[in-house]
């Protein structure tokens, strides 16, 4: 089961109130939505591009009838999704970026080299997105190397891309373990598994995660009421940089000409999980929380 990260910190910033409307842009197992509904008689519109979260939705929905709605889709499209329920403005939007523990644990989804499974990695399996198998078996060597480097900073990206292209000439690369072993065969052992960074990069590419984040933040900032809060928990530096730069822009920080801004920071410094939390939930280790409020 997925343990929500920075739950107390997110809730103390969101400070849910009766009759307010919130968007949980990354529903997952519904950890944040559940807490909001426990804290206030509010309404939550949840979004997830992964259909399999329906079971978690059904359970929460029966505990809080009429208080929760789920849209299956991308959060970059949140305006269009909310419009289906005639919602144009809300009082808070939360993002908890990345993959869930359920997605990682299910070998059939292909997100993790800890389990053997098909090279899929699509969060939405019915989407038009190209899966990881097509990525490794059809893209050019340079494009593979550049993508791995761009989305993970992997210094051996060229060597890995070459090994992938050599391997696929003999036989189509079909499984997570095949791919992990190809990567491991060409890069030195280190503290973390050699395949970690490449898997992260391919997953980001397959799901256009950074493009989604940019569009999702923009959409969220446009639907907030005055006093509305935008809260983001991210898990690696590429995501955090996008959040930080966009929030700086919205809050008028670093602007050459001082102009009245529409938003201000709730927390000046990024919020990190406590030692206690990282000890009980290793997934929280790299989490960073940033939040702004609409003036
Ligand atoms: C880290 S989990 C969220 C966990 C959740 N906060 C909880 O407490 O259970 C991220 C979820 O967001 C979904 N997701 C990631 N990117 C998305 C996007 N662009 N649009 C919609 N859902 C997305 C994933 O499918 C996954 O279920």
UniProtKB/TrEMBL annotation:
<dbReference type="Pfam" id="PF01795">
    <property type="entry name" value="Methyltransf_5"/>
</dbReference>
<protein>
    <recommendedName>
        <fullName>Ribosomal RNA small subunit methyltransferase H</fullName>
        <ecNumber>2.1.1.199</ecNumber>
    </recommendedName>
</protein>
<keyword id="KW-0489">Methyltransferase</keyword>
<feature type="binding site">
    <location>
        <position position="96"/>
    </location>
    <ligand>
        <name>S-adenosyl-L-methionine</name>
    </ligand>
</feature>
<dbReference type="InterPro" id="IPR002903">
    <property type="entry name" value="RsmH"/>
</dbReference>
<feature type="binding site">
    <location>
        <begin position="30"/>
        <end position="32"/>
    </location>
    <ligand>
        <name>S-adenosyl-L-methionine</name>
    </ligand>
</feature>
<dbReference type="GO" id="GO:0071424">
    <property type="term" value="F:rRNA (cytosine-N4-)-methyltransferase activity"/>
</dbReference>
<comment type="similarity">
    <text>Belongs to the methyltransferase superfamily. RsmH family.</text>
</comment>
<feature type="binding site">
    <location>
        <position position="75"/>
    </location>
    <ligand>
        <name>S-adenosyl-L-methionine</name>
    </ligand>
</feature>
<keyword id="KW-0808">Transferase</keyword>
<keyword id="KW-0949">S-adenosyl-L-methionine</keyword>
<dbReference type="GO" id="GO:0005737">
    <property type="term" value="C:cytoplasm"/>
</dbReference>
<keyword id="KW-0698">rRNA processing</keyword>
<keyword id="KW-0963">Cytoplasm</keyword>
<dbReference type="InterPro" id="IPR023397">
    <property type="entry name" value="SAM-dep_MeTrfase_MraW_recog"/>
</dbReference>
<feature type="binding site">
    <location>
        <position position="103"/>
    </location>
    <ligand>
        <name>S-adenosyl-L-methionine</name>
    </ligand>
</feature>
<feature type="binding site">
    <location>
        <position position="48"/>
    </location>
    <ligand>
        <name>S-adenosyl-L-methionine</name>
    </ligand>
</feature>
<dbReference type="GO" id="GO:0070475">
    <property type="term" value="P:rRNA base methylation"/>
</dbReference>
<dbReference type="InterPro" id="IPR029063">
    <property type="entry name" value="SAM-dependent_MTases_sf"/>
</dbReference>
<comment type="function">
    <text>Specifically methylates the N4 position of cytidine in position 1402 (C1402) of 16S rRNA.</text>
</comment>
């Amino acid at each position: 089961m997925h343990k929500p990260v920075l739950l107390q910190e997110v809730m103390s910033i969101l400070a849910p109130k009766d009759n307010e409307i919130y968007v949980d842009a990354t529903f997952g197992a519904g950890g944040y939505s559940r807490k909001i509904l426990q804290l206030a008689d509010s309404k939550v519109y949840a979004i997830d591009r992964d259909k399999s979260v329906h079971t978690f939705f059904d359970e929460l929905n029966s505990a809080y009838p009429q208080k929760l709605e789920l849209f299956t889709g991308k959060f970059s499209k949140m305006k269009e999704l909310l419009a289906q329920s005639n919602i144009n403005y809300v009082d808070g939007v939360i993002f908890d970026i990345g993959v869930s523990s359920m997605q990682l644990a299910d070998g059939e989804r292909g997100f993790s080299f800890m389990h053997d499974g098909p090279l899929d990695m699509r969060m939405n399996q019915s989407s038009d997105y190209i899966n990881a198998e097509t990525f490794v078996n059809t893209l050019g060597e340079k494009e593979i190397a550049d993508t791995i480097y761009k989305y993970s900073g992997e210094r051996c990206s060229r060597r890995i891309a070459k090994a992938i292209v050599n391997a696929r000439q003999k036989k189509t690369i079909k499984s997570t373990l095949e791919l992990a072993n190809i990567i491991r065969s060409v890069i030195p052992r280190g503290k973390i598994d050699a395949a970690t960074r490449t898997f992260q990069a391919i997953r980001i590419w397959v799901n256009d995660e950074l493009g989604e984040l940019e569009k999702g933040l923009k959409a969220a900032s446009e639907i907030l009421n005055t006093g509305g809060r935008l809260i983001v928990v991210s898990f690696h530096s590429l995501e955090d940089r996008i959040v930080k730069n966009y929030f700086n822009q919205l809050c008028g920080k670093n602007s050459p000409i001082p102009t009245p801004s529409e938003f201000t920071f709730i927390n000046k410094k990024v919020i990190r999980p406590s030692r206690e939390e990282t000890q009980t939930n290793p997934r929280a280790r790299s989490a960073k929380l940033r939040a702004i409020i609409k003036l």
